[in-house]
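Structure first, sequence second, as always.
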């Protein structure tokens, strides 16, 4: 993930069940929406926030 995508990250973009982050087209560099898989460690860190 790019820095601006991380800064724009909101809780509703995280799917804890599917272990993904859904990035909307308006915050990605190429203007295309995409899902980013989360590692187990990354998922655990996000649960702490």
């Amino acid at each position: 993930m790019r820095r601006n995508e991380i800064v724009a990250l909101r809780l509703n973009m995280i799917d804890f069940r599917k272990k993904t982050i859904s990035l909307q087209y308006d915050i990605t560099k190429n203007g295309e929406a995409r899902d980013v898989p989360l590692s187990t460690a990354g998922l655990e860190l996000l649960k702490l926030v």
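Margin note: The chain has a mean pLDDT of 94.
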